[in-house]
Amino acid sequence: MAIQKSSAPTIIDVAERAGVSRATASRAMGGYGRIAESTVELVRKAAAELGYRPNEVARAMRQGRTRTIGLVIVADFTNAFFDRATKAIVDAAKARGYQVLITNTDEDIAAERQAIETLVDKQVDGLIVVPSTSAVHDHLASIQTSGKPLVLIDRRVDGIIATSVTTDDFSGTEAAVRHAHAMGHRRFGFLIAAEGKYGHSSERPALLISTVEDRINGFLSGCADLGIKARQQSWMFCEDNPRDSDQAVAKLLDQPKAPSVILTSNNDMALALLKTAGNRRLAIGKDISLITVDDSQWAAAMAPGITVVARPVESLGAIAVEKLLAEIDAPGQKAEKIVLPTELIARGSVANLVMYPENEPENY
Amino acid sequence: MAIQKSSAPTIIDVAERAGVSRATASRAMGGYGRIAESTVELVRKAAAELGYRPNEVARAMRQGRTRTIGLVIVADFTNAFFDRATKAIVDAAKARGYQVLITNTDEDIAAERQAIETLVDKQVDGLIVVPSTSAVHDHLASIQTSGKPLVLIDRRVDGIIATSVTTDDFSGTEAAVRHAHAMGHRRFGFLIAAEGKYGHSSERPALLISTVEDRINGFLSGCADLGIKARQQSWMFCEDNPRDSDQAVAKLLDQPKAPSVILTSNNDMALALLKTAGNRRLAIGKDISLITVDDSQWAAAMAPGITVVARPVESLGAIAVEKLLAEIDAPGQKAEKIVLPTELIARGSVANLVMYPENEPENY
DNA sequence: AAGATTTGTGAGAACGTTCTCGCAAATCTC
DNA sequence: GAGATTTGCGAGAACGTTCTCACAAATCTT
Asked: Which residue of A27, A189, A279, A318 has the fewest C-beta atoms within 10 A of its own C-beta?
């Protein structure tokens, strides 16, 4: 009986058993360089008998590449972004032989910095980042200084030259306004999730992430195109927590001339609206209308279904991986700004005021 | 002006600049062994000037540990497990200085095998696995053979000795039945998501994952305790896809004596019920009652809120990490079967039949 | 059949760390 | 102040691969 080795067999053990040199065994296993087919067989057999598995850390060390990409993402559940994007990225990477090291920043710039540092130290071959803010980018630049490819997703960051994959939220909210207008709505509310320490307010914060900026600009552009005046619009910015969002909804609804339709900038806000509306016995799609950004299973399953601006999150992730791997395989690609189209999915949460002439909006 | 090195500085560069040996520089940076405080200062300064960052791959190679754990998980979104568990695990790991390599199996045993193999090859220090089936476990055993600690979460696997962290779904569904009974319900339906290739059926599949087994047994136990007879119960098993789940819901509702309350084994099934009920203009919590396993933001926000059996998914993940790291730090820990309590959260989706004597269930 | 080329293999360096060991200098002991 | 101990540091091996180079044997060329 053979003596059991306590630790895992290495290529040296395989080489010995096959009666060849370390280099030859490595070539046989790795399938590179010149090597006789008969030798390959021999080495394979020895490897199988020993249960040999190559040590990927040693391999990474020698080859200077880990076949691992780093993902720095904001883990916000309800927006159905974190999970959908993560799955898409993990699956796309796997299909190309890469694994994913995942880190969560919780929208915190310090955590983002640290996550990036750690991933670079771990020698990932490239990074996909959902930046937590558009304002700071020295840490992103430092990724590039370190020579690692970088792809930004979901949010743009000005001041840095890197490939980014985002969605056309401007057109999305514009389409939402257009849709509500076509259904006869003339008073628009907008409930906007925003980071910060100011609770909730109707005052536009100085600094917003690019998706939120786009959604606001799309809203304003849609209103302008349709001749909707400022006094027909109202909005609230608020932190993404239950207390503030509930109060923000209340403030929107309790205005003298309350909006008939409310857009929400993400699913948290939509849920806040749903909750407050429920408490007030306001029926969605009847007493109050709703359109939100980001589709979800529950938005489709509810009665009535929620009308949404759907964003192609899976494509976002898959394309990001594709672009990142392209840069890894052949450094020096041109940085691209890829913008994916959004889609308005009309369900039942927007009341059709046109059908009921008695509800026709007053002169505005 | 100094000559720019093209690649990242190594400890050798630091040593040279500080005028000490490689070993001393390493000691200074790593903070181990005997070393003079003045030398540490010197080396730190040199490292800072060069922008030196230790190569974690080389370090892992030498130390035989990567400070990385592998996560093998089933990415099913709607059950709010994948995202919540992943975030909890990533955050708990980070707090202890570990990173997470994530892989998705999509409930596929072949993918699970391959994922495990890859992660072991990448020399993760331990694995957390959500097993896709209870039937096969040789690949899990092979993790242990390789000497890597293993913690199972969410689902039990018989035939393998490993620490597992699960939730008490038996008591959860039992409590759900009890709650509905207390509200006056006497006809119970159960819509159960199950893996397989049989579409939907009222016949109990031979093999189910442990969570589903527990939920069924809890349902049956609750019924038995309350004296609910077999003819007052009906169930459907079905694959987790829209077509089958819709048909399964229809079959439950179209029985001669349809159930007044339906339990669903996960959120997908709950959404299927919601959708069909909406199409039929059945009001939840009035015309048809619903309790589902797993809480979610939308279940809380809807009007009426959905009554749920909430599972402590974050704790599940955090405890799994804790146990795994304990085993990594000190191998030879005793395998534990940790079962976390579930909680019934009553909202408005279960009609109170007791309040309306005229609705009192007929003699049964 | 002699030179040119191709093929298959092995020896040894290299990747960037950490660890073990040995040794000289500094400090302690009485 | 001589021996014992402690302190600080450097040389070199080690982790498990892959890669470069050299070289002998086999095959091709004309």
From this structure: A279
Q: Give the separation between CA B295 and CA B273, rounded to whole angstroms.
A: 16
Query: Is there a domain that residue A332 lies in?
Result: yes
Q: Which of A36-45, A133-142, A282-291, B217-226 has the lowest average pLDDT?
A: A133-142
* A318 touches B: beta carbon within 8 Å: no
Between A62 and A3, the higher pLDDT residue: A62
- Nucleotide with smallest C1' distance to residue B59 CA: C17
CA distance A73 to A363: 47
Cβ atoms of A79 and A294 closer than 8 Å:
yes
CB B340 within 8 A of CB B172: no
Is B278 in contact with A297 (Cβ distance < 8 A)?
no
Asked if residue B208 is part of any domain, the answer here is yes
Rg of chain B's alpha carbons, rounded to an integer? 27
What does chain A come to in residues? 364
d(CA B215, CA A322): 41
Task: Give residue A5's pLDDT.
Answer: 55
Q: Are residues B262 and B122 in the same domain?
A: no
Domain that holds residue B72: 66-167+312-341
| Tally of domains in chain B | 3
Q: B307 and B295 share a domain?
A: yes
Tell whether A108 and A226 lie within a shared domain: no
Average pLDDT of chain B to the nearest whole number: 92
- Residue B144 contacts A, CB cutoff 8 Å: no
Q: Looking at the structure, do residues B26 and B80 belong to the same domain, yes or no? A: no
Work out the minimum CA distance from B184 to partner chain A, whole angstroms.
25
CB–CB of A99 and B118 under 8 A? yes
Q: Return all residues near B139 (Cβ < 8 A) that are at least 6 apart.
A: B112, B113, B116, B117
User: What pLDDT score does B5 carry?
Assistant: 55
